[in-house]
Amino acid sequence: MYPRIRNLREDKDLTQTHMADFLNCSQRIYSNYERGDVDIPTTILIKLADFHHTSTDYLLNRTNQKKPYPSG
Questions:
Q1: How confident is the model at residue 72 (pLDDT cuts 50, 70, 90)?
Q2: Closest Cα partner for 1 from 46, 44, 37?
Q3: How many CA atoms lie within 13 A of 49 on its CB side?
Q4: Could you tell me which residues come within 8 angstroms of residue 29 by beta carbon, excluding any fewer than 6 positions away?
Q5: Is 50 part of a structural domain of the chain?
Q6: What sequence ranges are listed for the domain HTH cro/C1-type (predicted)?
Q7: Per the domain annotation, does 67 fall within a domain?
Q8: Residues with Cβ < 8 Å from 44, sequence gap 6 or more?
Q9: Could you give the CA distance from residue 38 to residue 50 in angstroms, rounded to a whole number?
Q10: Please, which residues have CB within 8 angstroms of residue 34's CB and are 6 or more apart in sequence?
């Protein structure tokens, strides 16, 4: 399950449909991502991290640091 992806989306008052449109996928696929029913492809995970201005590690619960890593 990816609760941080859902929480970040809800914090911005966005619908699953809005996020699905941004990611060029269906709402059903995006919903599957949030529920953890399917693994999120790396390219989608990176797009989500960029969209929410955070790191993929934060989205994956590997860190509590919400700030993205510095570009290098």
A1: low
A2: 37
A3: 20
A4: 20, 38
A5: yes
A6: 5-59
A7: no
A8: 23, 25, 33
A9: 20
A10: 1, 2, 5, 6, 9, 16
- The tally of domains found in the chain comes to 1
The yes-or-no verdict on residue 68 having pLDDT over 90 is: no
d(CA 12, CA 5): 11
Q: How far is CA 62 from the centre of its chain?
A: 14
pTM of the model: 0.90
Q: What is the CATH number of the domain that holds 10?
A: 1.10.260.40
CA distance 49 to 59: 7
Chain segment 34-59, per-residue pLDDT in tens? 999 999 999 999 999 999 999 999 99
